[in-house]
Amino acid sequence: MKALMFGWEFPPHILGGLGTASYGLTKGMSQQEDMEITFVIPKPHGDEDQSFLKIIGACNVPVVWKENDWNYVKQRIGWIMHPDEYYWLRNGIKYDFSRIYTNDLGCIDFSGRYPENLIEEIGNYEAVASVLAHQLDFDVIHSHDWLTYPAGVFAKQISGKPLVIHVHATDFDRSRGNVNPTVYGIEKRGMDMADHIMTVSDLTRNIVIEKYHQDPRKVTTVHNAVEPLPDADSFTKTLRKDKVVTFLGRITMQKGPEYFVEAAHRVLQKTNGVRFVMAGSGDMMEAMIDLVARRGIAHKFHFTGFLKGRQVHEMLAESDVYIMPSVSEPFGISPLEAMQVGTPSIISKQSGCAEILTHAIKTDYWDIDAMADAIYAIVKNPAMYESLRTLGKEEANNKKWYDAGLKVRAIYNMVKY
Amino acid sequence: MKNICFYFQIHEPIQLKRYRFFDIGQNHYYYDDFQTEDRIQRLVSQSYMDANHTISEMIRSSNGKFRCAFVISGITLELFEQYAPEVIDSFKALAKTGSVDFLVEPYAHSLASVFNEDEFSKQVKLHADKINFLFGIKPTTFFNTELIYSDEIGALVSQMGYKTMMIDEAKHVMGWKSPNFVYKNALSPKLKLLVRNWKLSDDVAFRFESSMLTAEKFISWIAALPENEQIINIGLGYETFGMTHTAESGIFNFLKALPYHAMEQNIGFVLPSEFTKKTEALDALSAPYPMSWVGNDKDLTPWTGNDLQQEALNKLYAVSERVNLCKDKPLKRDWLMLQSSNHFRYMSHRDAWGTSFESAYDAFMNYMNILADFLERVEAQYPSTIENEELSELLKTITNQEKEIELLEEEVTKLKARKAKAIKE
User: Do A260 and A361 sit in the same domain of this protein?
Assistant: First the structure.
């Protein structure tokens, strides 16, 4: 089975959860013996792990025919792609894309991020998809998230191969209901055209069915998993006098940071010996600092700013409680990461990962009383902490991408035959 | 002649309300009365009243030949008195027929038999008194909470003066032995054991609908047992009738038809104590570790299986001595209510039967908040600055004094009697 996947991010250069999930899923699927994955991303950096799949950078795929010397091509992109491959892909140019601005090789410059002209970049990605669809050999097309739906749809129209789309989030999650019509249009068309839709949680599945009017039979939930942490034991917890409760993520409306501050306020009214940390950055950070000051808990409440890479796991491992009060979270992989390093998690019921976790505390995102109660119970009660720690760790480590990969494979088989 | 010994268990705990940590020290009322009443009323209207009615009719139509025993926890009796006194009246009427017996268990349906001997015997006495007060019957047969049994518990029960105890058929205790005989305790041979027939009991309790069981079929199974197996103990939760299997499933008609088919096959009905009185025990059973009647493993894991449950139980029973010293009535009532085994079962990850909490953790958090408040109240009465040893010394002196006084009083009455005799002569 050969799959052509369109993605937007791939580790180590990631901006959100999409990259992590793409990596985990493809790695899990690559353990199936006859699985060949070609993963397209707008702009690879060359340090991606290609041991289990092939990565094609859209920014190195020619969409406009330009004559170039072999050595010149080697000098320009040889560090990431073999010149012969460039020439071979060039044969897949069947349409005139000269309206698009291209460089000397006939390739499009992608930012690979989420720039101002995102919609334009999504369109350009379609052009690349057309070249690949003509030239590559594959059995199924798999598009990750709305940015790549148009590319997937175009590839399906050209090749006639089935299209599976993977909904990692919808615009309803990002906007708390104020949907951007353009984005909705792209999402809806992708779903309509898809042979099958995969969602990361039942929560998202319901949104896809209700808000995008999809046939429930066409929508299947494939819960995310978590990549085993090889150096989980290298993260240590320093003995401290005070317990540490941590919020980690973008400080935006979607993540519900204000509920964390209010819960912290509740806990601090009753007890000392607890400190609260808000790690990350975002458009609500200043408002949160204000709120903390207004509640008079600034002496126990700390902001770390943006953390990345190893710092994230270090912060999680140092914490006694991890809390994710997201208002709407399609899946939310970070509680699983916290549990991997043995940190008990409190998650909102409005998170997709709540569907598959038993050894985590679940509360409504608005229920600051319940949240405060859970924080109090974990920091004050060693039995509670130890239970959540050991059983949670075991549970998180049992959520394997391999199993998720098998589910995806079953869907491939279904759409193919 | 074969005999069926039916006994029905009724226990519905008082439900705890949502109690947050900021309530600790502020609010000393722990119960969700609405939920408790709702559950009681539902059980009463769907199950207990109809079942009682059916059984009283069975007794009448069989001229008292149909006999069965009930075990109703003390807490539940209190809840009936409060919310559904008609059930008490109906049981009183059953008690009057003479065909019904009441068994004794720890008052609060607690795990005291495993965790605290003193508390265990206190609760048993409390329950026996309650039954005597309500139904005018002095219970002689023992039914421990969830049929928890071990050799030691059996010995304790025997010490309290009970001659018969119900236990469950657990593979690791019974081995190849048939449950349909009378056995005895390994440490105290005076205590006879009646073993619940696991298969036949569950056939009614859980498989009635799925196996389309009829009274005729059920009795024919019993009739087909070897001739020398003379007592078949069928123990059921009373909610089997009307709740687990609704009236529409025909469970009441099944029950009603039992005596007719049994008599046809020459099978009788007995009360536990009746049968053990006239029958010798076949063999001693050895159960070094506590067992129960729940699940396939029949052990204590549903209540004590994980760290949360252990923690809660240890914290609770650590103060039993102190609570027993108290004379504060509300505190003592709370002490009983908090001991119900259900609260701990709600903390089980795998088998939280009957829970209204979202998870084991939720149940644990709520219980521990309540317990924290309760412990503060105990602490206020007996500060922990007084060492436990010191306290137990005091306790010992007090109890010894009581025992001494009892002995002396006995002597006084004896002497008085002798004196009266002497004077007469």
Answer: yes
Sign of the alpha-carbon dihedral angle for B322, B328, B331, B332: positive
Say if residue A158 is in the same domain as residue A278.
Answer: no
CATH of the domain at A41: 3.40.50.2000
Q: Tell me: do A337 and A392 sit in the same domain.
A: yes
A385 & A406 share domain: no
Whether residue A335 is found in the same domain as residue A366: yes
Task: Identify which of A387, A340, A344, A341 has the alpha carbon closest to the alpha carbon of residue A362.
Answer: A344
* pLDDT (0 to 100) of residue A233: 81
Contact between chains at B311 and A373 (C-beta distance less than 8 A): no
- Measured between alpha carbons, how far apart are the two ends of chain B, in Å? 54
Range of the domain at A407: 2-225+401-416
Q: Phi and psi dihedrals of A328, rounded to 5?
A: -155, 115
Query: B297 to chain A, minimum CA–CA distance in Å?
Result: 22
In tens, the pLDDT along A333-347 reads 889 999 999 999 999
**Beta-carbon separation of A377 and B308 below 8 A:** no
pLDDT digits (tens, 9 = 90+) for A348-393: 999 999 999 999 999 999 999 999 999 999 999 999 999 999 999 9
Same domain, A13 and A116: yes
Do residues B21 and A377 touch, judged by C-beta distance below 8 A?
Answer: yes
Give the span between the Cα atoms of A315 and A237, in whole angstroms. Answer: 9
Q: Which of A153-167, A185-199, B289-303 has the lowest mean pLDDT?
A: B289-303
Please check whether residues A22 and A111 belong to one and the same domain.
yes
On chain B, the residues whose CB falls within 8 A of the CB of A359 are 349, 361
Quick one: pLDDT band at residue B388, thresholds 50, 70, 90? Answer: low
- Total domains in chain A come to 2
